[in-house]
Protein 1
Amino acid sequence: MDMKLTRRTVLAGAAALTAASTVTRVFAQEALAPVTIALSSNSLGLAPVRIAAQAKLFQKNGLDAKVTIADSGNAAMTALLSGSVEFAAPGLSEVLIINSKGQKVVVVANIHRGLGTSLVLSKRVAEKLGVKPDAPLEARLKALEGLKVALPSATSPSVAAFKGAASTAGASFDMVYMSQPAMIPALETGAVDAMVAAAPSWLRPVNTGSGYLWVSGPRGDIPAQFNTASSACLQATEAYAKANPKEIEAIRKTMQDVSKLILEQPDEAKRLLGEVYPDLSAADVAMVFDTSSRNWAKPVVTAQDIDHEKELLKASGLSTPAIEAVDSASLVDF
Amino acid sequence: MQTEAKSMAATNIDTRARRSGMPRWWYEFGSLQLVGQFAFLIGTLVVWQVASNAFGWEFWISNPVGIVEALIRWYNTGLLIPDLQITLFEAAIGFLVGSAFGGLMGFLLGWVRPLGNFMEPFVLALYTVPKIALAPLFVLWFGIGPTNKVMFSGLLVALMVFITTFQGVRQVDRDLVANAILLGAKPFQTWTKIALPYSAVWIFTGLRIGLPYALIGAIVGEFVASDSGVGYRIKEATSYFDTSAVFAGILVLMIISTFLLTILRLVERRILRWQTVDLSATREH
């Protein structure tokens, strides 16, 4: 066949190639299900989701995931209920409270096992009390007696955890509630003696030398009976979960993949963590990774975990009959 | 004289009724408007309650009965009055501090033109700053106690009062001032006899706009760091997804704000009574 290479055939060929590549791209994009995930903060406790996004694990599992940062767990849950996001990442207490209000929200996968916050004590107070940050845990807990401690909110799992932990050493402290960004100036100006926050908020006073990492949730300083099973987990409305089993499975698979990455390729995971949090120094990334990675690598929440959360709410006086009546199994098996 | 005034008022009512096409009694009984407003309020509350019950929207929009119940619960905990006292104290002091500072600065910069021209861009730049973003910094500067909320309230109010006072004083008729000086008026007399009366409406407008901002400042301060106050209770209720309690807090704020605005309006009416003219009557003739 004698085919002449004219200007017309070249142009037609180029147009056909462009159209073909566009069609391929469109089909490739269509294959990915778009989902939006609202995280409750930029806390490092939620790092697995951001590592997964950075490592393109959501795409690998067929999701075009957009991660957005809300002001609090409460705001993330509200975004979920309003239908503006498909997944939110508050704690277990929020899922229990919201179900007790008649809204059906289910737990899809875990993000952070146990408490994600830590207590930082002002250096000034520690020196006054004569207790060192490397003293035994009981002595550090006892040192909290009568101090003024800043906490994120009255309903935070940190309240029951740190109050409970202090009570094992016979100590009790006064609480002041404030947003995490306000805690740092409050600690540095002496308005409060200690603050309970997640990384990266607590890193600043520790790095500048104005505070000591005193009691760490991620490190496992909180006794099991006061510790939450999950301080952050991916949640969806029951209606969405039932209507979109493929997306639910993809989210679960992604969280398993990121757990595997954290456990089997820690250096790669640290590199990705550093990329997600460019303001953190390599030393901070390493420290946070070492204390938190084991909590990040447990992607499953069970009905027993939810029962444990109910007990915690009860012990801290935050439970109601409606919360106790929530069927734990229905929140994880749907 | 009284008969003349009555006759003028009757003519006024007739004219208004004729122009609007409404019956005369509509204007004759001014209280009918009040009845209408009351009926509108009750109607809205009934629709709200029925819609909430009928569609199961209590979680989303609460309802009037739920809000009243939440208020009663709040009262029964013994915290409503102390919370109100704290928030009112913070807002009131913030309002006084802010309006005094904003008023004085506005007057000074409005009166001394070269200084006002020099400072205007800086003040406008400060005015455009989203003040809420400064709230965490106020913790650094003023701690977590009431001072923090008072100063934040004061900042919001000061900017409002400053802007209106500044504009008001700038609009004072300078020819009038020059004439007064020619006739032997002292600077103090030009301030008290011309500048202040001339700009009083503007100043009061600033105070009226600033008053709700005093409450906003106190509430934002309580959102950022506190363990009591109306703002703190609203935040706490939000954590529990307790829509009724959130509305209860908002209702309390609304009542306080309306009450304070009414007082301010009475004060304004008393102070500016020399300016009161029956404009509607004037327009009709």
Protein 2
Amino acid sequence: MSSLERSESTRTYWRSLQHLENSPEYQEMVAKEFPAGPETNWTDSSRRRFLQIMGASLALSTASSCRWQKETLAPFADRPENWVPGKPRHYATSMEVAGVGQALVVTSYDGRPTKIEGNKNHPASLGATSSFAQAGTLGVYDPDRSRGVLSLAGGKETPSDWKNFTAFAKVEFAALKASQGEGLAIIAPLTSSPSLRAAQESFMAAFPKAQWVNWDATARSQELAGTEILFGKAARPVYDLAKADVVLILDEDLLGTHPDALRNSRGYAARRKPEVGKMSRVWSVESNHSLTGGISDHRLPLRSSQIGAFLVALESEMIQQGRFKVPEGKAIAKGAPKGGFLAEAKAANFITALASDLLSAKKNSLIAVGNNQPAEVIARAHRLNILLGSVGTTVTYKDVSTLSTVDINQVQALAASMKKGAVKTVVTLGGNPVYDMPGDLGFAEAFGKVKTRIHLGQYFDETGVASTWHLPQAHFLESWSDNLTWDGTWTLAQPTLNPLWGGRSAADVIGILLNQEDSHESRVRKVWAAAFGDGETAWRKAVQLGIGGASVFADLTARPKNLALPDATPATMAVWKAGAALEVSFAIDASVHDGRFANSGWLQELPDPMTKLTWDNGALMAPSTADALGVTTGSMMTFTVDGRNQDIAVYVMPGHAKGAVTLPMGYGRTEAGHVAGLSADRVTPAGFDVYPLRGSHALGFTLATAKATGEDYLLVSTQDHHLVDEIGMKGRGDRLGDLVRTGDLSKWEEHPDFAQHQVHHPPLISLWEEHKYEGHRWAMSIDLSTCTGCSSCTIACQAENNIPVVGKSEVFKGREMAWIRMDRYFIGDDPDEAEATHQPVSCQQCENAPCEQVCPVAATTHSSEGLNDMVYNRCIGTRYCANNCPYKVRRFNFFNNNLVVEEEGAEVLALGKNPEVTVRSRGVMEKCTYCVQRIQASRYEATLEKREIQDGDITPACAQVCPTNAIHFGDLNDDTSVVKADHANDRAYAMLGELNNKPRTAFLARIRNPHPSLVKHDSHPKDAIKHG
Amino acid sequence: MADFTAVKELTDAQLDDLVHPPQLVQGTEKFHDITESVCVVAEAHRAPKAWYVAFGIAVTFLGILGAMIFHLVTTGVGVWGNNQPVAWGWPIVNFVFWVGIGHAGTLISAVLFLFRQGWRTGINRFAEAMTIFAVICAGMFPAIHVGRIWVIYWVFPIPNQMDMWPNFRSPLLWDVFAVSTYFTVSLLFWYMGLVPDLATQRDRAKTKLRKMLYGAFALGWNGSNRQWHRYERAYLILAALATPLVLSVHSVVSFDFAISQLPGWHTTIFPPYFVAGAIFSGFAMVMTLAVPARQLFGLKHLITMRHLELINKVIMATGMLVGYAYAMEAFMAWYSGNKYEGFTFVNRAFGPYAWAYWIMVSCNVISPQIFWFKKARRSIPIMFIVSIFVNIGMWFERFVIVVTSLNRDFLPSSWNYFTPTIVDLLTLMGSFGLFFTLFLLFCRWLPQVAMAEVKNVMPAAHAHGPDHEEDQ
Amino acid sequence: MSQYQFPRWTDKLRPLLAVVALGAPVYMTGIVLYGASPDNLSVGYKPEQPVPFSHRLHAGELGMDCRYCHTTVEKAGHAAIPSTNICMNCHVNIHPDSPRLEKVRESAATGEPIPWVRVHDLPDFVFFNHSAHVQKGVGCIECHGRIDQMEVVEQAKPLSMGWCLDCHRNPEPHLRPVAEVTNMNWMCEGSREELGAQLREANNIQPRQDCSTCHR
């Protein structure tokens, strides 16, 4: 990060904290039991911890204490009751992404939120979170966040404040009130918040003629339209994969970027352990090679436009196999599409097998379909659920007609009237329409035509720059709110610190525009009271739990009268041939979603689960497509849709549908910040903006032409930094089967312990006398059968262990710092049909650790409980340990990666560090510690309570966040522990155990459940293919 | 005032004809002429132009080295190309390279001395000098390659308030002891041999300053029989002490690799293989230095064609030893049936770093084969070029061992290509700057040939014993 | 030509030279080790505090218990520095307008913290937990010395790693009944080792020497 020009000086920053401390709302917060904003409470600990981070480099480089450095302790003037300095406190809250809430629990030290976990009480979360939630703590301390009200009248940036704005708003909106809001438009991000909805209603009551338009680039409007065809009202499918024997997923990343991915993953995992009940079988048909496709037992790559035809073909096949009827009668079978891709053996066999599978599973089958599909296709897919009778068992449809939605027609109308100059005043309540509106609307230009443009946002972003007023928005950790989760559970969001930069929430701003004074909290509480009845204790309990009541959506159980559907739109049946137009589809990005998280260094550096790309998106296409176009990974291509051009770098994605291109959204930001791109400071944007190619009539997928520009672009991934040569491919193929042990269900049934006999080696004899472990014996187990490769563990670990971000060029050099990395391999001889497999690898805490033996200064040693302790302050950085580690999980600080904290304006980053973990300086090695700080914390707790540590007391960050609960941690000396059972499991194996390292992390072999008629003779990875 | 014209110029051919084994020096030479031709270099008012040019270049690179190290220490190890998985890059390659070169010296002086190889006398002095300087270069690299050089003293077992000792199981620690011991002994050995010659220079010195300096270092040597008697006894003992070190040092260096369990490193052949390689590269470097030196300072009658030919024979022999090691390594990798080991060697020969591997093989194994021919063995240009080849080849051997083994080890997910940075390159060149600066200073101010010892092997000496009065 | 001779007296220098050559390195190492060791660097550090608070008066003469002010010492890692209101609990009545308490009253009024100067300062990569020690019967005095006799607090023990290990390796002589933890005048009848051994047995005390005990 370069220096932050927009930031205030450090001193003013600290002064502002002083002010905060004595602010009435602070006192009030403290008085209440959920204090906010005391990252200013200068207890000895927080002060010391703060110095610890600031002076980390000095501190680490000096062996003895820094006597010459005079430290002062600033205790509370008045410490609240039972406020224990340095003890973490936990607050329930929630965050909302694209109109769907997630229930969270925030860990906060001395008032500084440092870690976010899922809310165990919430059925969808059960303690897990998305990567986006994990990155929340970095988000709130992002130095690039807007730090004050800006007036941009006359094109020049003049710092202002809320008082000025309020004064301005009084006048402006008084006038508008007179005209009932004629010429006033509100662009609001999609939200489920009842309190915001209430605010909106009161606003519209005051300005009846105003246009209120919701916009979100990832809104699931198609799904609503599709279900409306079936049920007559917008419905939302809530899936229960735990009940499904057969799952068919159509063009949807159900376990990845789907809003309810956590619940889906949990359900999926419940049915993927062979020893626990009947295994489910997952079929997916998709254009992109998504994470969900990666874990499927059978996968058919098809262009998005062909899914409709596939469905009809499937229905007719089911009819032919009998015991299945559709309202259209047999007719459909006759009119069923033929030829094209259906002529290919693979597709044909796939459909036959799938049909019989669905018919045998009947009501225990589940069909999920993606929002990119046309409404008719979505309707047809869900109708299949109804016809198979799975409604109520594997899928429930919720009535969401009351929720705010994005109506693309309204959006188009608004853009038009703006162009006409019919709009005088526009207010964007968060969101970033100037950036993420479909290209065909020419929104930026239209926006410019409006006289008064008010923008509320956490960042002074693309829209902010184009506005006449910019207002800083409060982060979700800084404000009150209430959200509904996917299944309609009511969740409460409470602030865990005072707004760092005086930000306000959307509801507050509406309050200002309406000239009302009540705080957002009181609004939230009012709405809550209306729904659940008021009462101090009830309210307190709600705030404590963070979730309230059952689903507020009604179930649609009644079977719709008329299930007949119009014939699916004629699909392009033809298999793609070189020269034909390409089909580009737009996908939510696993790292930055639609661009709203773009400025988070953690997320930018988090490798995409499938491409492993960092700091960039790319045009994903099949190897054969790339060959046909004469391009390869890194080649720049100009894509053209309806005359709108955009240059994007190609990424060759094995298993992608031929002739289709997937464009992840959310990159190419020009005003995001010093991480994702900032024109003011000449920070080049990360990745490529694909919104210009998006059409408001085709938000899902559309046809495009592409031409290679001849230039090359450096795409950086954490795996295969360079294309792997033939020898490499062969070498990889030879060993892959031993590293990631995989087998079909049938194979497992024959030899449950096949994984343990995969590798044959001579008897293992140790050079040294082996360790004895009287006390605890910490160990981990990772179940490859349930791991989906979502990579949440990587980012949870980053948040917990103060792991630095190194930047694109360093990642390219191979110097990324992730302590737990998600290895991803593609298997299969034909690149176009490749299967993906994932394996999370962190320090295996070997009992005979190769690293320990070679360190000349004993900086990494063996603990009495079997951990490889890594002592940063003893390390001199010979890097010998890293060489000798067969798993290559050790990470070296080639530079001081925390220097950014010392940059003016960026000090705020230090507040987000975990005070229980040393911040590493340059020249020292680091690695996974099994979260030893959490082990110690539990030990202290047990000591105080005069008891032993129980199984389950300790959960490492990776295990805690895992949506499929694939990671277990515990004590091998405790016969009742889960991890002990896992290690005893037949599927358990030690990766590279033949080296006699005795790793403490056991992997459980991955079991696939292919359909008998499609089973391959040898499911062992023969040969890993390019781009691995 | 002596100058170089004082020495009678003879062509190699002429000199050679005059040499009849075991005669190693032109028969008609008097003891005094030896003294003359050696000391004259140090006594001359100005060295030959070539010396100033060479010295200028060397010092420039020394400066660059300083700058690079400053940059490194202030910025971080990241200025090099090192990464994950190649955590050891050029610094360690250079370290092993220089330690290897530092071998010939002690071998020639000690081992050949014990084996009564008279011919060593012509070259042992600057071979030893070369050893000292090479080890200085070598010692520098492990020191600067660590991440936190300011706490590097933790590798020494010094009592401290942390109650911490170094980890005596770590080969790196053994290295620290092995190399420092080797350096100390070599230094003593070299200085010991210098004493009589320093005395000679002291006695010939004209200016007061020189008298004092040479005098101080001559430790009051007066060449009495008693002194000679003890001197030779002590020299013998030191030689006996130094000999095992020749084997030990590079064996220990090889442990850095052999003790680890990385495919390509974890092999038992490493110690002998490394020692052979070290002698190989050491002799090559001796050759690279001897050829120009004898030309420049007119010592052809002392460092005769016979010396050079013998060196060439050693180079060829050790070259083939090294070649055997390469072959055997690869064979064992295949024979062991270990898939990781096997892959490493296929990957070396045909993977991304194949070019490095084949440079190594052609320079180290193929090029010395030319010495089968007497003509080639006795041709100055050929032997010079081959010696340069061998130096290059041996550097690449270490590159192949360190980088190709690391860049593709067990888990394919962490495979990565290593690319050096400009800092890597300049640091290596800088180390040559350091080496040559020291060496040129030595050539200028100290006797490059062990006069006293040479006199020992002159026919005259055998006629009527060593006569030291002759000098005064 | 005449052989150059050093003057006779230089012979006497030779032994001296030898001594220096051998002695210098040893001496240098020694002096640095001694100078840099916390025993000499840290012990006795006695900064002036913004408020002339006397532990001798409060903890000594008045015999107040440490835990009255350092409230969290038993339940948390940090023995919190008392907040101003704890001072004011008494000083609203006692010496309500003594000039020496000016800063305290000011702080109480404005809410601005009193900037105490840290005396016992461990390196930032060391994680020490008060509760774990206090609960196991390690007296305040073991690390902080006779606080009750200090007019101005000073560092009494080196707080160096070796010093910590001494106790972790051989805790017996440093243990006392948990009830006596804050008692500065506690005297052990009989052998401290024996009592220590009993206490260790009773309270199940296994001081760990793993690196991760203090370094994470």
